[in-house]
Amino acid sequence: MKRKMAKLVNFLHFFLLPLLLLLLPALICSISHHAHVAASKSTVEYLPGFQGRLPFYLETGYIGVGEAAELFYYFVKSEGNPEADPLLLWLTGGPGCSGLTGLALELGPIKFNESLPTLILNPFSWTKFSSIIFLDLPAETGFSYTTNPSLADHPSDHVQVSQAAEFIRKWLGEHSEFLQNPLYIAGDSYAGITVPPIVQRLSIGNERGIEPTLNLKGYILGNPGTSGEFDKNARIPSAHGMALISDELYQSLHKSCKGEYHIVDPTNLECKNNLEAFYECLSGINMFNPLDPQCILHKMPVEIAALRRRRLLQDESRLLSTIDPPELDCKYDINLLCKHWANDELVQKALHIREGTIGEWERCNSRWNYEKDIPSSFEYHVNISTKGYRSLIYSGDHDIFIPFVGTQAWIRALNSSIVEDWRSWHVGGQVAGYTRTYSNGMTYATVKGGSHIPPTNRLIECYAMFQRWINHKSL
């Protein structure tokens, strides 16, 4: 018996053990590619480019969703009363634009200095009254990534909806102290396509008893995309109202295209020619705000981008290089500084980015073939408007890309009765825009002089608008 046991031990030692050692790396690799990395979260107290300790609570981390997606987020705790203040899940548009956009370029507690990629405080941050999760959505956006490309969902509108819904339930499962806080899903631009179906999905989940139960209260959308029918059809009357095209061209367009500009009959040559004349008139115009110079980021000369590169210095103050930068040619150059900052090794270390998970960070993903499989979000607005959720829809009135004309059109099409009719709202004794409220809990507001992303050029007005609305006060 002892001899048999000895032979068995020798067999295991000399034959099976080497085989197991040989297969172990492949086994580990297989497991790592077919299973999520454990959810992680880290507190960030210092950021390169900001002098001193951050005076607000910033957390970054990853939540695994689907089969292979690891979604990265920035979470800022409310600077007011975080135990009771609302929680916002903020989704930047694009599709595929990073949550860093909302955090540092729009409505978060920090913003970039426009002369160097240094950071300063934003005194008009929406985090004064709410906690906000800025999410890199979907996977392959910002610092989010996939553990196995062969298992990853093809990026699309429906994938965004699925990933966002799974993310927020898992995130609140990991942060149960915020489960009772009022929850709002929010975003701007292309998020107008995905936020309404996310709200509907979460609402249905609550009704079906999916845990954890969310204290879902509503949604917020700025200059939201809805559909070509509403958004693109509104561009021509908006441009005419801003005196960018002549009366004659406008009348000819309206007559030849019959008011339908988003889908053109190829046999209707008169409509086609008029549309070409329209876009020629607007070829030198910034569609996001005609008052700003035209400077499209992806068309910027390589030399300009190269001039913006500045090496970060690791010193006790954690400030960036003090080498004098060139003048910024355009306010949108700030995005280049943002890209330079986010790609720095020290920054990624401070944010606790998992090493080797992405290549070059881009504010908006321009490398993928994204499928826009929700042609219109209007039906979702219809469905959720009957469930008692609050909503704030706002439009910068100088945006031609997604004009207020189209946004007002789909709001009217909801057929909700008016509770408070059209009137001006004010900040500092001046008209800041116009507003109207509806029986379905929706508040609509224009931001006077606002661009496609109003918090970028009407910061104080948007701050006041949000403060009043989130606290259930009249604008």
From TrEMBL:
Entries under InterPro entries matching the protein: AB_hydrolase_fold (IPR029058), Peptidase_S10 (IPR001563)
Signal peptide feature range: 1-30
UniProt-recorded name of the protein: Uncharacterized protein
Biological-process GO terms, alphabetical: proteolysis; secondary metabolic process
SUPFAM superfamilies in the record: alpha/beta-Hydrolases (SSF53474)
Keywords recorded for this protein, A-Z: Signal
Stated family: Belongs to the peptidase S10 family.
Organism: Linum trigynum
Gene3D superfamilies cross-referenced by the UniProt entry: alpha/beta hydrolase
Molecular function via GO: acyltransferase activity, transferring groups other than amino-acyl groups; serine-type carboxypeptidase activity
